[in-house]
Amino acid sequence: MTSNTENYKDIPGWGMDADPKNEPTYPMKEYTGDDHKRSNYERAPQQKQSVELLQSLERPEPSRVFGATVPPSGLSGAIRRYAFKHSEDKVRHWIPLLMADRIQVWEGLVEDLTKGYIPNIVAERGLATEWKHNPKGMLKKAAVCATIALVIGCALRRNKG
Predict the structure, then answer these.
(1) What letter does residue 140 receive in the DSSP assignment?
(2) Would the pLDDT of 91 be above 80?
(3) N or C: lower Cβ tally within 10 Å for the chain?
(4) Which helix (H) or strand (E) holds 3?
């Protein structure tokens, strides 16, 4: 039994249209080692740590530069500290971080109100734009929120007696 590859070579003109510079081994033939030199560059200096920094278990060293404007605080900070006690390959790392983000939004609203600032919810949530481009979706969200508020209100009223 003969293999098919030998038969191809017998075909007159086989491979005459192939680009000799476009073969998979071409970069290896031209290897100079320069590609491996790209990681040899001067590193940025380490930023000084002035606030609590939550670090991944997988990368114990802090990155050279990091955000320090919003240190973890309050309930969202406690949830973030819990999340960073777990590996990044676990759900108990990522879900708490998502939850902490949502809670931090509410903490920010409460902080604004305690400082006497009334946030412009319509502008900050993009409700005017959503009403302009997606009125059906906005009405659906409003109906869902109203239903949830009604259910919670009825449940609280029933518990009072």
Answers:
(1) H
(2) yes
(3) N
(4) none
SS3 75: helix
105: left (phi over 0), alpha (psi -120 to 50) or beta: alpha
Q: What is the pTM of this model?
A: 0.60
CB 73 within 8 A of CB 56: no
Cα distances (angstroms) measured from residue 89 to each of 29, 57, 92: 39, 10, 9
Alpha-carbon separation of residue 11 from 16, 95, 115 (angstroms) = 11, 61, 84
Q: Which two tokens stand for residue 80?
A: 């973030």
d(CA 47, CA 59): 16
Mean pLDDT of the chain: 86
Q: What is the pLDDT of residue 9?
A: 72
Confidence of residue 27 (pLDDT cuts 50, 70, 90): low
Residues 122/128, Cβ–Cβ less than 8 Å? yes
Confidence of residue 110 (pLDDT cuts 50, 70, 90): very high
Higher per-residue confidence, 75 vs 158: 75
Q: Buried b vs exposed e over 11-40: b needs ≥16 C-beta within 10 Å?
A: eeeeeeeeeeeeeeeeeeeeeeeeeeeeee
Measured distance CA(20)–CA(31) in Å, rounded: 16
Q: Which of 78, 75, 81 is nearest to 55 (CA)?
A: 81
